UniProtKB/TrEMBL annotation:
Taxonomic placement: Bacteria, Pseudomonadati, Pseudomonadota, Betaproteobacteria, Nitrosomonadales
Species in which this protein is naturally found: Usitatibacter rugosus
Carboxymuconolactone decarboxylase-like domain: residues covered: 8-50
Entry's Gene Ontology molecular function annotations: peroxiredoxin activity
Stated name of the protein: Carboxymuconolactone decarboxylase-like domain-containing protein
């Protein structure tokens, strides 16, 4: 819930490696808000954005 940024990055990279699409990853993180709280979900989205930028993955709007 906000203290596992390095691990979250690894899992997002792994999800992309096995074929998950960025919108699917974003949706899972948004669902996290119900269980972990809105601040944790926002932190997760920021981590996802970093990973997408590192990999040059475009996220549709």
């Amino acid at each position: 819930m906000g203290t596992a940024t390095p691990q979250l990055k690894v899992h997002i990279h792994g999800a992309l490696n096995v074929g998950c699409q960025p919108p699917e990853i974003i949706e899972v993180i948004l669902q996290m808000a119900v269980y972990a709280g809105f601040p944790a979900a926002i932190n997760g989205l920021n981590v996802a954005r970093e990973v997408f930028q590192e990999r040059g993955v475009a996220v549709g709007t």
